[in-house]
UniProtKB/TrEMBL annotation, chains A, B:
Residues 37-216 form the FAD-binding PCMH-type domain. It holds the Pfam family FAD-oxidase_C. One of its GO terms (molecular function) is oxidoreductase activity. Keywords: FAD, Flavoprotein, Oxidoreductase. This is Glycolate oxidase. PROSITE patterns: FAD_PCMH. Belongs to the FAD-binding oxidoreductase/transferase type 4 family. PANTHER family: GLYCOLATE OXIDASE SUBUNIT GLCD.
């Protein structure tokens, strides 16, 4: 419990509207988008500037309570759940775009700006911010940086971290620091900008972000390819890359996903096929024409059952939107959805699909698989019911077996969702005790008192 | 002094040919390519495997002497000079390319492979490793990673670090760790792969590197533009980028550089002009044609005095080679060359040139400026004589003033050469005492005993 005096002190610093302390309001800030995980914070603050973040952090330090930074709470690994209570520091009222620099091709924004708002603002100036996480309509750019979010276009254009040029942040001791700048090259000292990316709010609180922009592609073409078995779809992905074509997007949906999506959005996806690939190529018109032809040639060679070219921008957008709906569509028909984030080197795509099918049968589970096939980044999702203890046990056994294979193939337990709380036990299996030891020392270097995200830093041994 | 017993122990572990201990042989390993800096090591070892690196490090730990890792010694900030003596651990006999993975578009190599050898090996398989530091004929890929080396093509393609997928390294405690992998996305825990990049051998010894490859551009076109004053060349660079054209290369040489290069390579560069830009566009033929036309349009608008299109590949290669010779060409005519590595946001290019001219006049110095104009990364080089104390004092004052401006404009004291010994005093001016404090804590997290590069970690206060 936080005393009235401390609440008043926070109100004095941040303003009445920016401090939440009633139990019913606190309840909703104890969740993110990860099923089955929640913990009520003791207090929630909404700082409106870097200075207010510092002020809130100083008060928390003085009182000795933990601080959990948060954006929109669209995270999928429980990284913004205040598992030890204390203060949730919510950055989504810091939502101003501070500058679009057309000469240096950069945008500087506060951490709480919604990703799609930022992308649209720069597009209005004829510039392009490529990373497009499926949650872009609600996620914040600060959250994207903290998770190093991917997206549909990341195959060709790279992930959030590839666009970060500078970060202004508040360190756990309350001091501020800016790392990086608008120079496109900078090797002055250790690159802790890059260390902060994907650090999930455990090392510092990011308040302002400068991102690199690029000229937008002149045109694009979207196509769908249908397959009568999913391994063939995986093979198509590998062979397109091996043909030295890097599409901007290469997304997969399996039969379960297709049917859930079609139930939801009703755009005429074929319910009987085993899998589809949503492929987009973009760039100069001549490149688009050649790459489109090259992709179609590979698709015919591997025997896709049908290839459908989007007739226009609206249809292409509709297809991408349908793909972005995959998780929501499954959540609609299933009480719980356990989604994972397994990523393998692309050459293991077909094997990964086969393994998912094999394990789903072994554990008698309904699994819908979709994801960023071109990146080797899949989201096998178990449709389940939290209340069914036996089913949940089988679901966890499924992922346990799957990750064993993924790691054997040189893959990772998280391609884009982070470790958070949900995957702590898998992390050590990937990076080993030596890796965990170095991570612990890095955490201590930044946050010796363990004020940020205690009890849910990646490698915390304690259960909550 | 290192005892005969310890030398014998090292010989037993590494083999006789891989241990150097005679004073005359040690002398040459006390230099890198930075003028005015040298310190003789006590012993030099050439490990031939990761295990041998571990063995050498363990012996050094036991004896309590410092270890300085080194590649070819082409570094330009003194990062591989063993300023506290001890062991130089030279990786250039670990020079095997271990795998070219055509399915996943990766190459894995030992740290001592020469950069150009690696680039040629992957090109023979129809793949492309873009980063091309000017020193690529002699530099090692391990050294490139440790400095996050840039190069001529980095404007469009990014720097070395943008291609690093995995690093195998030996930590200061002698344990090995692999960070990253062949998955194109990986957010499992802190990204210490990215922290190791540009850490200048102060955190770990990199032994194997996996790099991302891309399909090579189909074609390219090289052109030269001449200018009657250098600020106009700077303006041309900004305007080409503002026109949303990202050439693969946009290099500048001023009059002093042009004349030194022409004296050396005699390819008919015009001696009377104030500056030239070497510009290359690459990609699909249609893109090359359009971008080339777009670049020429801008060049005419800003009033370049002449535009010359390379007639063929040989001429283009000759021009790039001439540019790569810039430093050697100046070193040929001047007893000493003090080269710096100032980088500014691109919009400050013209001002930076003006400032360099102003300061050269103020301090009565001959300064040749060349570099990666498209990246805002310049190498103003003072032609001087180490033995002339007054001139050296003026040269240092020149750089001091210049960096004040560079930092005022949001630039960096090192775009690609690193901090090493040469720029320690500038680092704190850039990152502040808070930044230095975090860097010190990171160093301690990796290397609590300070065995790697002691006395020349970026922020060491001690002089040597």
């Amino acid at each position: 419990m936080i005393s009235k005096a401390v609440i008043q002190e926070l109100i004095n610093e941040l303003g009445k509207d920016n401090v939440i302390s009633t139990p019913e309001d606190l309840l909703v800030l104890g969740y993110d988008a990860t099923p089955g995980l929640h913990h009520r914070p003791d207090i929630v603050v909404y700082p409106t500037s870097t200075e207010k973040v510092q002020a809130a952090l100083q008060i928390a330090r003085k009182q000795g309570f933990p601080v959990t930074p948060r954006g929109s709470g669209s995270g999928l690994s429980g990284g913004s759940i205040p598992v030890k209570g204390g203060m949730v520091l919510c950055l989504n009222r810091m939502n101003n775009i501070l500058e679009i620099d057309e000469e240096n091709l950069t945008v500087t924004a506060q951490a709480g700006v919604i990703t799609l708002d930022l992308a649209n603002a720069v597009l209005a100036k004829g510039l392009f911010y490529p990373p497009d996480p499926a949650s872009q309509k609600i996620s914040t750019i600060g959250g994207n940086v903290m998770e190093d979010a991917g997206g549909l276009r990341c195959l060709k254009y790279g992930v959030t971290g590839d666009y970060v040029m500078a970060l202004k942040c508040v360190l756990p001791d309350g001091s501020t620091i800016t790392t990086g700048g608008k120079s496109v090259k900078d090797v002055a000292g250790y690159s802790f900008k890059d260390l902060l990316i994907s650090s999930e709010g455990t090392l510092a609180i990011i308040t302002e972000i400068t991102l690199r922009l690029i000229p937008p592609p002149q045109t694009n073409q979207t196509m769908l390819a249908y397959f009568d078995n999913i391994e063939t779809a995986g093979k198509a992905v590998s062979e397109i890359i091996a043909a030295k074509i890097i599409p901007s997007t290469m997304e997969i949906m399996d039969k379960t996903t297709i049917n859930c999506v079609e139930d939801y959005v009703k755009i005429g996806l074929p319910r009987e096929i085993a899998a589809l690939l949503l492929i987009e190529v973009d760039g100069h018109p001549a490149v688009v024409a050649e790459e489109s032809a090259g992709v179609q040639k590979v698709l015919k060679q591997v025997k896709a059952t049908e290839i459908h070219i989007a007739a226009n921008k609206e249809e292409a957008l509709g297809l991408a939107t349908a793909r972005r709906m995959a998780l929501s569509a499954m959540a609609r028909v299933s009480p719980s959805t356990l989604m994972e984030d397994a990523t393998v080197p692309r050459s293991y795509m077909a094997q990964t699909f086969a393994e998912i099918e094999h394990l789903a049968a072994k554990y008698n589970l309904i699994v819908g698989t979709f994801g960023h096939a071109g990146d080797g980044n899949l989201h096998p999702t178990v449709l389940c019911d939290e209340r069914d203890t036996d089913q949940m046990k089988r679901a966890h056994a499924f992922f346990d077996d799957l990750y064993t294979k993924v790691l054997e193939w040189g893959g990772t337990v998280s391609g884009e969702h982070g470790i958070g709380i949900a995957k702590r036990e898998y992390l050590a299996r990937q990076v080993g005790s030596g890796g965990v030891a170095v991570m612990k020392r890095i955490k201590t270097a930044f946050d010796p008192d363990g004020i940020l995200n205690p009890g849910k830093i990646f490698f915390d041994d304690q259960e909550f």
